[in-house]
Write a structure and sequence with these properties.
single chain, about 270 residues, mainly alpha, Rhopdopsin 7-helix transmembrane proteins, 12 helices, about 0% strand
Length: about 270
């Protein structure tokens, strides 16, 4: 768990670098920076709840920022799409991707706006017994759906967007396989392959961990098992991969028009 704290803080620093220094020159960095920020913030939330034993950290992170985690999938998809299409603009229909986050934000407002003393009481209950966090109804969504469904909705949503982005990337590769004439094309496609691979590994491990928590108990998170090991590898690979692919900050080199016209004439 201390490693999770270190990785999460590293991810937040990385996201701030992307958003503050590269967003102006390279617009997709906004999506990538937001993605890393949401992933890292979720990691801090996990550390606060499961390992910190800190009433202060739990009262700060528990539920207050959860709606941001529902943005992880949408910004991942928007980043992949903006790189492959060389167009980072959001369409009007893209606003639909914000619905899950807005729904959760609305549902959690009563708790978010509650007094700090009340949040401290909840935090103390979680420190005393971490399983309390899996039974307490933080939002009115838990009045409509079983609590485990509310918790599972987050990783399931991210998994759906990851698969969607992966399919879009594979189609791009198949469609443009014969057009990769620039070295940068191979570089960026290699980066996207690594990025999506580690993301898929991380979200699958986390999804199974959450599922096992509700079926076998919260002790799953404190037991060193294959899921925990692979989840750590996914997190390390996801947050560490940008340092091995610094060229991602400049985007996917586009195929020159002259080459496309030449290829069309030859065909």
């Amino acid at each position: 768990m201390p490693m999770l704290l270190f990785l999460s803080l590293t991810g937040i620093i990385l996201s701030l670098v992307l958003l503050c220094f590269n967003a102006i020159r390279y617009k997709p960095a906004i999506y990538l920076g937001t993605f890393f920020f949401c992933v890292s913030l979720y990691g801090l939330n996990q550390y606060a709840l499961l390992d910190s034993q800190s009433v202060l950290l739990i009262s700060i992170f528990c539920t207050n920022f959860t709606f941001l985690y529902y943005l992880t999938g949408p910004v991942l998809y928007l980043y992949i799409r903006s790189v492959l299409t060389d167009n980072s603009r959001m369409k009007k229909t893209d606003m639909l991707h914000l619905i899950p986050a807005l729904v959760y934000l609305t549902a959690s407002l009563p708790y978010i706006l509650s007094s700090y003393s009340f949040k401290v009481e909840i935090a103390r209950a979680i420190v005393k017994d971490v399983s309390f966090a899996g039974t307490y109804k933080f939002t009115f969504l838990s009045e409509i759906f079983p609590i485990y469904m509310v918790y599972l909705s987050r990783p399931i949503l991210v998994l759906a967007y990851t698969l969607w982005a992966g399919i879009m990337f594979i189609r791009y590769i198949m469609r443009h396989e014969k057009l990769f004439v620039l070295s940068g094309q191979y570089f960026m496609t290699k980066w996207l392959s690594v990025f999506l691979g580690f993301q898929l590994l991380l979200i699958l491990c986390h999804l199974f961990s959450v599922f096992k928590t509700f079926t076998e108990g919260s002790d799953v998170f404190f037991t060193l098992n294959a899921l925990q090991i692979f989840s750590a590898l996914g997190m390390i690979g996801l947050l560490g991969s940008p340092f091995f692919f610094p060229g991602i900050l400049y985007g996917l080199p586009r195929i020159p028009d002259s080459f496309l016209k030449k290829k069309i004439r030859e065909e």
